[in-house]
Amino acid sequence: MPTDQSGHATAAAGERFAVLDPATGEAFDEAPAQRPDELDAVVWRAHEAWRGWRSDAVARSKALLTAADAVEAAGADLAPLLTREQGKPLAESYAEVARTAARLRYFAELVPGTRRITDGRPVHSEVRWRPLGPTAAIVPWNFPLQLASAKFAPALAAGNTVVLKPSPLTPLATRLLGSVVAGALPEDVLTVVTGQEPLGARLASHPGIRHVTFTGSVPTGRAVAEGAAASLARITLELGGNDAAVLLDDVDVERIAERLFWAAFRNCGQVCMAVKRVYAPARLYSRVVEALAQHARSVVVGAGLDPGSRLGPVNNAAQLARVERCVDQAVSAGARTVAGGHRLDRPGYFFAPTILADVPPACPVVTEEQFGPVLPVLPYGNLDEAVEAANGTGFGLGGSVWGTDLDRAEAVAGRLECGTAWINHHAELSLAQPFAGIKDSGVGVAGGPWGFYGNLRPFVVHRPGAA
Ligand code: NAD
Q: Signal peptide span per the entry (predicted)?
């Protein structure tokens, strides 16, 4: 591949890259690799389009509602394509399409308020809200459509134009979504660009971009922040998580086991806010381990397009290797594999749903984000130790507390250092609530009016009061 002056690989005209089906490990299609000059043109056209788009909130709202209908109508095309490149069961792809449409509708109804400030002085200050400008939305491969819409729906509703870059592992459904949504909008208001790195780095540091809203891993988030520093664009970073579930001693193990299992294994564990560690009281430990292992052993694993598959493959070979490494390190350090623990003997990136017991707490499967179908279960002696362990990683996305006495569970939930703490479930979000990780899990807020205002800046008009 040719390189540019900085040594970055550049795509030649018409160059394309392969997209793999994780259920087979084979290429099934291609996507275009955008050249730097093409990216440049897209960003500057987004700048031009911004002039019109920012000026009419009523037209914006109407266009976004039309886009939501179009997304729903395209579900039968979008969902199978998403499953093919991402791996998830088809029903989950349909759910992702539905949430994308729901997001467009939710944000279409939000209008920035204007507020008059009176503070006793003979002046009026009026706070209005203005969009930031062309926005770069960069998203990962685990929920390509849902995470893309979590960025472009509020950004567009607020009057910004958007350049959206999906992961090169899942570009196709996003390209299709982009054309469906863009069909309801003026030209160049939303554009999808695809390609391998350094396309994302170029987009994040582009001088024409005023806001970079990124979801992905912590190291890439840091690189994005450094890139955006060049133009001092606003950054919103939704990064990794290592959420703990703390089970209390009054928990009804058999009643919650299935819900807890799916909170960890949905989308093959490739969820930023999945349960990634379970802390169980020593007295209940073996029951918790066995109840989770029973679900892990019985769940149907298969290609996402096969009816009946509840868990698909891991999305890509590098992620599969990472999951395998995490398990092997834990087992070498003395952990017990109670279910799974190995790749499946078939083509594609399949890993058996795995429950690990007696895991030394310093193992990477506990301290880092495994992002796969593997769950370590750790015993605790007293609750303070469990809370300290739950809070003891660099992440702070979510956490949950499980028990019968809800007031007690809520008191423990209040001690978790994270953005969202759930009681007796995990990872459920409403469109209307804020979502914000702390520590290494992120910067800024997504979701609800808070996320909407993250796409706006205050503009103040200050004038003398009436005589
Ligand atoms: P990643 O960080 O490797 O990639 C994310 C996106 O950034 C991709 O589009 C990628 O092409 C792009 N990218 C890569 N290098 C870049 C650079 N230097 N500059 C700009 N963009 C660049 O993440 P991934 O492996 O695709 O996704 C998994 C990660 O995403 C996990 O850590 C997971 O926890 C996280 N995630 C977080 C949330 C959240 O809301 N907090 C949600 C989903 C996933």
A: none
How far is it, in rounded angstroms, from Cα 370 to Cα 164? Answer: 27
Q: Which atom of ligand 1 is nearest to the CA of 437?
A: 41
pLDDT bracket for residue 2 (50, 70, 90): very low
Tokens of 241: 């998580």
Report the separation in Å between the CA atom of 131 and the middle of ligand 1, taken as the mean of its atom positions: 25
Nearest CA to ligand 1 atom 23: 216
The pTM of this model reads 0.95
Q: Which amino acid is at 349?
A: Y
Is residue 136 within 6 Å of ligand 1 at its C-beta? no
DSSP state of 359: -
Does the beta carbon of 238 lie inside 6 Å of ligand 1?
yes
Whole-number Å distance between alpha carbons of 126 and 313: 54
Atom of ligand 1 nearest to the CA of 442: 41
Q: Which of 241, 195, 202 shows the shortest CA–CA distance to 224?
A: 202
Domains and CATH numbers, the chain: 16-239+432-462 (3.40.605.10), 243-423 (3.40.309.10)
pLDDT in tens, 280-315: 999 999 999 999 999 999 999 999 999 999 999 999
Tell me the catalytic residues. 238
Asked if the model's pLDDT at residue 13 lies above 80, the reply is: no
Amino acid letter for position 152: F
Phi, psi of 424 (to 5 degrees): 60, 15
